[in-house]
Amino acid sequence: MKPGLKRGFDQKVFVNRSLTLENIKCYGFDMDYTLAVYKSPDYESLGFELIRDRMVSIGYPHELLRYTYDPSFPTRGLVIDTTYGNLLKVDSNGNILVCSHGFCFLKGEDIHKYYPNKFIQRDDTDRFYILNTLFNLSETYIYACLADFFTKCTRYTNLLKDTMDFIHDTGTLKERTIKNLEKYVKKDPNIRVLLSRIKEVAKVFLATNSDYGYTEAIMKYLLEDYIKTGNPKQSWRSFFDLVVVDTRKPLFFAEGTVLRQVDTNTGKLRIGTYTGDLQHGTVYSGGSSDIVCDLLDVKGKDILYVGDHIFGDILKSKKRQGWKTFLVVPELSKELQVWEEKKNLFEELKRLDVFLAEFYKHMDSGSRECPDIRDIQTRMKVLTYRMDMSYGQMGSLLRSGSRQTLFASQLIRYADLYSSSFINLLHYPFNYLFMAPPVLMPHELAAQNSADFASSELSAVTKTED
């Protein structure tokens, strides 16, 4: 970066926990939605159409074909209630922030009919299923379509999961993607630049759940198509010290599976378990995070792992292995844009929150009067709604008004770094110290807010006297 230039918000890497890049000896990457960024909404629309058409082919009503994918509706991190077919946005404790049945958003009294405490038990994984991945966006929209079409969605939930499994297990989505890579996969020459620079200072590995055939097609498209005519061709595998496919994350971060070598000429797995040393340019299948550390001769704390899946990539690698983590959040570009445009609404919410506290400041357990705060509460609801609608029908990925979502709480807890793209690492030197901002606890915030409020009142009085 040239002297005097500042990183724009869309180029920044954000920090939850301080991290020194100089201490990172190994960088690991997921492929889907990390190295390979799928074009939205074309890719989600393709996934939706494949699921919808498959469901109709196995007996669902043909009327479902009238639904088309609407990217303004779904967001990541929603929870599907398989009992009622409702889509829920919840916070880290399971408190319901938003509830929809189909495309109908339920009000407070209607939500209470389903959930008397406006609360769900997140541990009840048989009933509540979290739609956390970017692959889940098309699935989220299908759930809404089914609930919209049928009065009850219960008996269709398991069938939908079977259909999703069919689309992925048979490779239908991957086949369609490979046939039209330019339509569905973004190309960025900076991927080659960044991987080359990283390889000069550290080891690099790729760990993907995809099979070798699909990985080969995607990575050749991303890394080999920029080779100039007449230059010796550089294999995509040369950008990595280790390539592992079929990882079956999150199992990969626990006991893992048998490590086998891939015959790169045929794409087939070689017989037997691989137990030798790391061979440069060799592709492996299966294995575990422990095996990766052994092959690359690194410890968990030396690894920065980059992925898009909050559970499969980030949470498990952090909790089970102690890897440093970098979460890719493509939605962050829009989140930042809306935040810049609408942050005045959030500031007003904060002021109203402090104002509410001031209402009760001189009251204690002996007070009998009850201040009328209905107008303030109504104003806060209006502000929250206006903020949510700026992001889309389901609101922000990360918050509802001043309350953070489950996804946001997991991001803060498990991702050391996060950004809209891993490419943003290009804008930082490899000895950079990412410093986490100081976080105030509630009692510290209360003291600060009280001081700010008093200061603003004093300022207002001074202006009046002038």
Write out key terms for the chains shown.
40% helix, five-stranded antiparallel beta sheet, alpha/beta, 466 residues
Short description:
The protein is α/β, with parallel strands linked by helices. The chain has 14 helices and 18 strands.
Question: Overview of this structure, please?
Answer:
- The chain is of the alpha/beta class.
- The chain contains 14 helices and 18 strands.
- The longest helix has 28 residues, at 332-359.
- The chain has a nine-stranded mixed beta sheet, sandwiched between helices. Strands 7-6-5-4-8 form a five-stranded antiparallel beta sheet, covered by helices on one side. The protein has a two-stranded antiparallel ribbon with strand order 2-18.
- 35% of the residues are buried.
- 40% of the residues lie in helices and 14% in strands.
- The two termini are 48 Å apart.
- The model has no long low-confidence stretch (mean pLDDT 90).
- It is globular, with a radius of gyration of 25 Å.
- A hairpin with a 5-residue loop joins β5 (86-90) and β6 (96-101).
